[in-house]
Amino acid sequence: MLFYVLFLLQPGTFGKVGHPFPSFQGFLYKVTVRCHPIAMSVPCLLSRAARSFTLLGASGVLLHRFRVLCPCSITRKMSSRRQMDHLERTASNYRQDGVYPAQVCGIMDESETVKRLRLAVHPDFTFRAGQWVDFFIPGMEKVGGFSVCSSPGLLQKEGVIELAVKYTQHPPAHWIHTKCTMDSHVAMRVGGNFFFDPLPSDPSVDLLLVAGGVGINPLYSILLHAADLLRQNPTNAGRGYHIGSTHLCYSAKNTQELLFKKSIINVCKEFPEKFSCDFHITAQTADIDQELQPYMNRGRLSEGGLRCHVDPNTTLCYLCGPPPMIESVVQTLLSLGLSQERILFEKWW
Q: Which residues does the UniProt record annotate as the domain FAD-binding FR-type (predicted)?
């Protein structure tokens, strides 16, 4: 089935944040859709489809062409030693249909190698905690792929999202670190089946979040969302989702590369009976700040460090990080009795 869809992005205002859109004349999508049977996965039920898109500017100039497949999946695996493009890695993942304009309204150094962007987005933009965005940069063929590190609550309150991007030579990340400025304009599309978005009627779970390096981004979003849900229903009095416990295990080379650590500690202090965290550093010889010492462990995450946070009946584990770490942790969790259905992971590299 072949049809054309014209998306007109009109000039306007970003609602709560007051940043005007640039003047967009429109994007023309040529869409071919082939439907497949519905497939079920945790935590979503999605239909499988294959779509081919040709993105044209209003002048008819070809901007980008790619193929997107959308079966329900919870992993992004590399099938070869070649460094795969974001669109290739995520070809089997769910994507929203809409591509929305966004404007950079904040830039800060999260670490020596990571920049944190705040982006004012279109009022219709939505995402679930843990999802990522296709990141379209004007004049650049390569499409970036970055997990949202902020919570859906921040989007609802302020009309913005945040991305934390590590420096690499990959064109989109390199642009963010070397050319992106306040008020830069980009476009984004949300994707991914790796998310935490419980309904009020869903059974309570105890979250175990395991992150390696910049794999913290989607898990930080999930942690913040869990904290927001607890604030909305502090006594679990039946007005919303019944929150279980949340424990974060986060590994990095050194404390400087532990992103969001102060915010994570603050959440644990706000809800000491519900939230806890362990930080692991693998390559630091210098002394550790006194504030971090109660949460810090030297060396890699061990089976013993996971055992006390795994209950086969209640634990739901989200993992994100380098493939070797993910594979090792998955095997450990399985040996501790956690079923495969309760282990959700993404491999970005």
A: 97-198
